[in-house]
Input
Amino acid sequence: MTGAFTIRGAALLDLPRILEIERLAFSQPWSRDAFKREFSLAFSRTIVAVWNSVDESAVVGFLCRWLVGSEYHVLNIAVHPAFRRFGIATALMDAAIGEARASESELITLEVRRSNVAARGLYRRYCFEERRLRRNYYGPGQDAIVMELQLKAPASL
Ligand SMILES: CC(C)(COP(=O)(O)OP(=O)(O)OC[C@H]1O[C@@H](n2cnc3c(N)ncnc32)[C@H](O)[C@@H]1OP(=O)(O)O)[C@@H](O)C(=O)NCCC(=O)NCCS
Output
């Protein structure tokens, strides 16, 4: 596969493709309304990876984050199955971590399914630490691990 991808802010026009990727990626996908709500929130932002080749230009991955005070939360990240292991999630995470640093966030947090080997591998490469277990967070027997990347020392009380 030849081509290159770029990262940009998502627009409402990207929603059909984001939904397609979401449904391919997750057994309990977010709904169209859930994404639309994120688009309307001031502290929420979605970025997309766009694959550009000679004959097509398509959204192949996305990341959704919240930026609240000094805390940066990655809510959702997914890459189209046909475009995995090309470094697209890495580029999305690079953009997110760059934004978190630029906004002087202290901490990046996220939740990941305990069974999600690929995502846990991705986050570990950025030195996210596995902090807590949330039992049955995604349903019976489906635990979540809370992961954190400390960017700055927390403000003292
Ligand atoms: C997790 C996911 C986003 C990774 O996307 P990707 O574009 O394929 O990731 P990258 O190519 O940037 O891979 C970066 C690193 O992540 C790890 N990784 C990615 N996929 C992996 C897999 N299937 N198994 C083990 N490690 C994996 C590796 O360390 C990889 O580096 P390497 O290719 O040099 O070995 C993708 O598999 C996906 O969309 N999964 C379904 C949705 C999901 O689980 N999202 C996370 C919710 S918390």
Q: What stands out?
A: Residues 25, 77-79, 84-90, 112, 116-119, 121-122, 125 surround coenzyme A (CB under 6 Å). The first helix runs from residue 15 to 25. The mean pLDDT is 95.
